[in-house]
Amino acid sequence: MPDAPSGVGGELFTEERSAEVVAASFAGTPDPRLRQLLTSLVQHLHAFVKDVELTEEEWGAAIAFLTRTGQTSDDVRQEVILLSDVLGVSMLVETINHRTGGTSTESTVLGPFHMVESPPRQLGENIALDGKGEPCLVTGRVTGPDGEPLAGALVDVWQANDDGFYDVQQPGVQPERNLRGLFTADGDGRFWFRSIVPRHYPIPDDGPVGELLAATARHPNRPAHVHFLVTAPGHRPVTTHLFVAGDPYIDSDAVFGVKESLIREFPVVDDPARAAEVGLPNPFRTVHFDVALLRADQPAVHGAPVGRAS
Ligand SMILES: [Fe+2]
């Protein structure tokens, strides 16, 4: 008996049956979820190649692009996440996995810059260590889905500086851990800290993802935002942003992260006594951002996610 032909059941690879033949090669995968993922991936990938009749040159360009995307990534730069972001995949995964049904704060992408731990800070502390930007007081309250305060909730925040860069992008230029802080909400679930009004910034566009954006006439900008990652025992964590109302890119975020419910005004406060009280120059800006978390035992909203194995 000669070697068995490729494929399962002796079926050889053909253009017409390519997806079925390759998918069948994964039929013996012991992990059912891995088997489902690979089978579906092969079906969609082959359908794509057939749909566009991919040329060998295009295949080669795609391989080179993906290779460079991986090679551009290191300890402080994640070009692969960035690629997922500009393709809307990060946002889709986030949205599918954190349906809220309007009962809790909506999530958005983690983004590529939560690469270092935020330093624990006291409530009220100023996270803007480089002295740049428009001073701002950020306040909010963490609650459960019924409005009950979550005392001791952890509020992890990070944002870019007034030049549009995160600290990890400018080692030696910005102070370490600039514009990052891990705050513990008080007994009433409240948190507050000093920072600056965020400014819109371009995602890193000097690598393969930037080439993709340039080739497709897309701008690389993200509307101004502060990142939040809020956790509390017994509750589902939320990864989200606070966006600045009126930002010029609020309707065209390069990574599709904006949700209407996350946009806030940043009004000016002109009150010397209040400014002195919070430790900011007068006048200053303020923003209030409440965060509601679902309980860990609450079922997923809208039923089980479509197509998910149990
Ligand atoms: Fe960001």
Would you give an account of this structure?
The structure is a single chain. The protein has 310 residues and is of the alpha/beta class. The chain is built from seven helices and twelve strands. A hairpin with a 6-residue loop joins strand 7 (225-231) and strand 8. Residues 302-310 have low confidence and may be disordered. The structure holds fe (ii) ion.
Tell me the distance between the termini.
41 Å
User: Helical content, roughly?
Assistant: 10-25%
User: How many beta-strand elements?
Assistant: 12
In angstroms, what is the radius of gyration?
Answer: 24 Å
Question: What's the SSE pattern?
Answer: HHHHHEEEEEHEEEEEHEE
| Low-confidence sequence ranges | 302-310
Structural class: alpha/beta
Query: What's the average pLDDT?
Result: 91
User: Percent of residues in beta strands?
Assistant: 15-25%
- What is the overall shape? globular
How does the major sheet shape up? 5 strands, mixed
In this entry the ligands are: fe (ii) ion
Number of helices, counting only DSSP H or I runs of 4 residues or more? 7
Which features does this protein show?
310 residues, alpha/beta, five-stranded mixed β-sheet, 7 helices, globular, binds fe (ii) ion
Short description:
The protein is of the alpha/beta class. The protein has seven helices and twelve strands. Helix content is 25%, strand content 18%.
Lay out the secondary structure.
Layout lengths: L17 H7 L7 H21 L3 H17 L6 H8 L2 H9 L37 E9 L10 E5 L21 E5 L5 E7 L4 E2 L5 H8 L5 E2 L2 E7 L6 E7 L18 E2 L3 E2 L2 H7 L5 E5 L2 E2 L18
Parallel strand pairs: 1-11, 1-12, 8-9
Antiparallel strand pairs: 1-4, 2-3, 2-7, 5-6, 7-8, 10-11
Helix pairs in contact: 1-2
This protein binds fe (ii) ion.
